[in-house]
Amino acid sequence: METEIELKFFVSPQFSEVLREKIPHNKILQHSSRELGNIYFDTPDNWLREHDIGMRIRRFDDVYVQTVKTSGRVVAGLHQRPEYNAEHTSDDPDLSLHPEDIWPEGRSIKELGGQLQPLFATNFTRELWLVGMADGSQVEVAFDQGLVVAGDKSSPICEVELELKSGQTDALFTLARQLCEDGGMRLGNLSKAARGYRLAQGFTGSEAKALELVEVTQQDNVESCFIKSLEYALAHWLYHEQAYVESPSMDCLHEICSSLSFVRQTLAVFGGIVPRRASAILRQELKWLEQELGWIKSADYLDDLTEDRGHALRKLDAQKALVKQLHVMRSDLPSENEVLQLLESARYTGIILDLSRWVLTKGWQPFLDDKASNAMSGNLVSFSQNQLDRTWAELVSAFPVEQTLMPEDYIDEHYHLNRSLFSGICFAALFDQESRQAFRLPWADLSQGIDELLTLAPVRELVGQLEGEEQEQLQRWLERQQASILHAMEQTRAMCMEVQPYWKS
Fold first, then answer.
1. How far is CA 486 from CA 37, 415, 416, 476, in A?
2. Checking phi first, is residue 167 left (phi over 0); if not, alpha (psi -120 to 50) or beta?
3. Any idea where the CHAD domain is (predicted)?
4. Are the CB atoms for 26 and 131 separated by under 8 Å?
5. Phi then psi for 54, rounded to 5 degrees?
6. What are phi and psi of 112, to 5 degrees?
7. How far apart are CA 75 and CA 227, in angstroms?
8. What is the CATH number of domain 379-504?
9. At how many degrees (to 10) do helices 346-360 and 280-292 cross?
């Protein structure tokens, strides 16, 4: 058995020129090109896929190799999967070539072998470089160009894989950073096999999914919770990046922003242990990216206002003129094409690479003193209770129940409220589900209410463009809308303060 450790990138066909220019900056140990044909197998009910197992037979020249990959980890494009290879003589699967204990329980090897059938194929040209890195590590760089084929359907392959052949995982990231410094590379968490299954099953695109709670237990210590939180954020981020590329949607961009905010809040929550200098450059770059995507909320508000030909403004005499102006404001925001350019930019890809490297190599540890190291190995429940107590105190201070708050008071605290909700994502799974939902839902509703207040802002900007009765009518409409939203929010705020914090139950 081998453990395959590699980074995958989606690129354009022209990227081969970049490789030929940049790879010689390192020591080239070998260089070759070959045609590869791969047939992937599974049962009619996709039993191997359900157990996260991939099986293929690869042919090059007159050589056949049967490969089985079992479940592993994917963190920000870094794939780590146990891999079993065996020489073969044909395109017919032979399960006896591999150890018996790699197959899932529930079906005998004979039964499973009799059910296997070809599902899809990947046929591509692979250009290979074996690169010697300065630290002595060896990295294989593969540029693959060809097709995934399932029946009468096909999808292009154009990707770069960096596989660690010997040495340190860090060498993969060092080389990846060199190759992506001019952009044109997008980290991928979809293998060719995953793309083949999608093609065979008529997959039409991934749906956006809201951030859920990090799967921590009372057996986790503080550091393992820190790692799980960052890994989950990275997985959520890359899932929605891929979903956006497949089918651009604002929902996917919102979830990328949620991932960013969650990473930044996780660094803040654990900042009492991990010194700021350990993540200074990362935090600076994450903040830059969050600012680059800061227009997304504005786009969301404009989309809500112009939905169904401006249905929200239907009672206004100036509805058509207002909707026209709102569409102009929306068109001034970045386009899908500009977003895709950002996703392939060097700085964007570098952020994901650096964050992934930092997590995988535990880049904070050299900055920890003995006290901090002990805290990282400490009890997670008590740490989480202390952090949630602090967050709760901040919320009580920001939304004091004894005061009547104005719209600007709520808007000023919107960012901090959302960051507080992100804090709970790290820890809430440790506590009773019913109690945590009863606590978190009113606060989430309050955040939604602030969004509704902010949706009025683009319309308010247009008041000065109207005159006479139309202007007065719009002003009255804004006042009514704001008063209605604020009334509901005040009731929600009272509910928030009445609910017992779930970590104190």
1. 63, 18, 19, 15
2. left
3. 219-483
4. yes
5. -115, 140
6. -65, -45
7. 11
8. 1.20.120
9. 140
